ATP phosphoribosyltransferase (Stenotrophomonas koreensis), 303 residues
Amino acid sequence: MSPTPSAPTRDRLRIAIQKKGRLADPARALLTACGLSWRESRDKLFCFGESLPVDLLLVRDDDIPGLIADGVCDLGIVGFNELDEQAKARRQIGLADAYQPLRALPFGECRLMLGIPEEWEWSGVQMLQGKRIATSYPAILTAWLAERGIAAEVVELSGSVEIAPRLGTADLIADLVSSGATLRANQLKPVEVLMDSTAVLAGPVEELTDIRAGLIAMLLRRLDGITATREQKLLMFDAAEQALPAISALLPAGSELIRLPGNGVTLRLQAMCQTGLSWQQLEEIERAGGSNLMVLAVEKSLA
Ligand code: ATP
Ligand code: ZN
């Protein structure tokens, strides 16, 4: 696929997601939860959007920032680590920013960390002076070292970074860590966090002006709705008027209490709670005068 120099007007939105790997399934699941569906199977490079004019391009995660920069894709789901690495690499060679994270997504959590040999005693960043550090994130590491005034050699490796110290090609590493098991298996220990990362929905710096702008706005609204409702619960209960102050005090902060039409003696109420309710909270509400308690999960909300 050849890059498009000046993004042409299109009437369909194109989203790049990882074809295979850690972000592939959660990215698809999230877009499906946003009401999108596609005709093609997951093995194909291109999936034609059926429910909406939104197509998918299945690629390597490393290619996603570039596809957005070139205007081949309008949005992408990629790790912030990858997006930021490529953004910093662009800046280091004097290129203007071409993409930006639009939303953080609730998956792909990891940290870019320094890992040192287990037998080393970590005494702070100054001990990195003159050391060789292997990483797949040279631009982030270079910027991080420069901010701290450390002169160290950045050894760029595209994979198997964690074996570099044992091979003697580096003294220590900067690599992605989620549980730390890979580091331990290679006799390394994590000592310093360079970056906390999650998957993000990324888009171009320059806003689109054609029909795709409306599609992006709709997608963001649906995404925000999903994120906002993850924890939201609707509590329904009956109570007498005089019990309301005590019950209100027991509801999670920010809960919105609404009176429903009732028989006049006992009030029928509902509370939209921004967080879940524990058994203990529900029992306390009962003791304070609430009855017929029912907790409902909120599936969708455009509030
Ligand atoms: P591709 O073939 O698409 O280039 P990859 O090997 O670069 O795949 P994955 O290992 O699937 O990519 O990781 C994709 C993203 O998942 C990472 O960039 C990062 O944002 C996130 N991630 C979460 N936890 C980890 C982890 N423990 N190690 C590596 N990446 C992680
Ligand atoms: Zn990759």
